């Protein structure tokens, strides 16, 4: 007996990010995105992405390039959905992905920008979906009406790989491969998914930072610490913090108005458990860098030497935060020790001494 299952683009509509990428790519329009701006303390919101995609969809679907790209993305989606690894092998053989993974405000955007510069790219011309962590989407499992987060991630990955094939079609080779930088914050949640779909040669650079300094940087990015010190959701990072803290058992978030740092610390701790337990740790190409001017900048300088650039890495700006929130520093220490012990149990070194500098 055989059963035919028919799924159409009505079940899996193309994403706005993919449509907008194809519109710019097909028309030779520049990609402009502020993803690489380390010093900006404003939230990067693109509330018009959906509307632009609606506006451009008909043109993209009518063009030969758009049709071919959409067809390719659905081919890859089906390959991922059905485990057709032979269709993925050419991607693994041509590209070497270098993923910078870590909580937001942990230095990942700077390192990703320096990777592009070391490879000879101009970061301001790299589309956000190619470079940054908003796409493809990944996170803890969720299913609700019309949404299955697993298939959503599969389709997003298929679209991302299609973008990579188009964008890097004529890119320079390093050791016979195209090097593809990617800030991949969300890879922590689905490590095995990223590790297997991007290929076993993918490199993972994990950025680590003291939770108090990272929390301060997060609320500064989000408009400042709320006057009453209580947690509030004003952007994506705070929404991820709320979601992850609740998944980690902090159900009191809904019933009370918790302190800002209590929610953030639960999020930070949960995220760092995901880094070692979701499948990324299976990669043989895994290394960490603790936040700090000399360490981060030296890591970036290593990119330039590795890829034969005569330039120097841009300055990494660090602002001291150790003299703020002494009570938060005391709260954070048990969580740091728990994460260190969990990493040790998984055979991974956690640079606790460097993080205790609290940059």
Question: Could you write a compact summary of the structure shown?
Answer:
With 359 residues, this protein is α/β, with parallel strands linked by helices. Helices cover 50% and strands 8% of the residues.
Summary tags:
359 residues, alpha/beta, 4-stranded parallel β-sheet, 6 strands
Class computed from helices, strands and strand pairing: alpha/beta
Order of helix and strand elements from N to C terminus = HHHHEHHEEHEHEHHHHEHHH
Distance between the termini: 63 Å
Question: What's the overall geometry?
Answer: globular
What's the total number of strands? 6
- Uncertain segments: none
Portion in helices: 40-55%
Side by side, the strands of the main sheet go 4-1-5-6
Instruction: Give the overall average pLDDT.
Output: 93
Beta-strand content estimate: 5-15%
Report on the architecture of this protein.
- This protein has 359 residues and is α/β, with parallel strands linked by helices.
- The protein is 50% helix and 8% strand.
- The chain contains 15 helices and six strands.
- The protein has helices spanning 16-26, 49-62, 64-82, 85-94, 108-118, 128-131, 149-167, 191-198, 211-221, 236-247, 252-255, 260-277, 293-306, 326-345, 352-355, and strands at residues 95-101, 143-144, 147-148, 178-183, 203-208, 286-290.
- The strands form two sheets. The chain has a four-stranded parallel beta sheet.
- A hairpin with a 2-residue loop joins strand 2 and strand 3.
- Helix 2 packs across helix 3 and helix 3 (64-82) packs across helix 7 (149-167).
- The mean pLDDT is 93.
